[in-house]
Specification:
Blueprint lengths: L1 E10 L6 H12 L12 E8 L3 H16 L5 E9 L1
Antiparallel strand pairs: 1-2, 1-3
Length: 83
């Protein structure tokens, strides 16, 4: 079966996010005064084959833990859809 995974990787809330701070500052300069805070992360889409949705979810979780996300600095969440 074919699947598509949508993965979001974000810095842990406890860590400083210099890129997010820079975006917040720039938005304020452009008069987006309602913006309080920005956190910048990554979004990754993956197409994969697996025997079942559970197997696809396991593959995506392993990929996130082993390569895509830095567990010390980032957290991740994902959804798997049948493609």
């Amino acid at each position: 079966m074919n699947f598509r995974a949508e993965i979001d990787i974000m810095p842990h809330k406890e860590l400083l996010d210099p890129q997010g701070k820079a975006v917040t500052h720039s938005l304020h300069k452009l008069e987006f005064d309602g913006v309080k805070d920005v956190r910048v992360g990554r979004h990754i889409s993956i197409k994969l084959s697996a025997k079942s949705k559970a197997d696809a979810e396991k593959q995506v979780e392993d990929a996130c833990k082993k390569l895509l996300a830095n567990a010390i600095m980032e957290g991740f969440s994902f959804q798997v859809f049948e493609d």
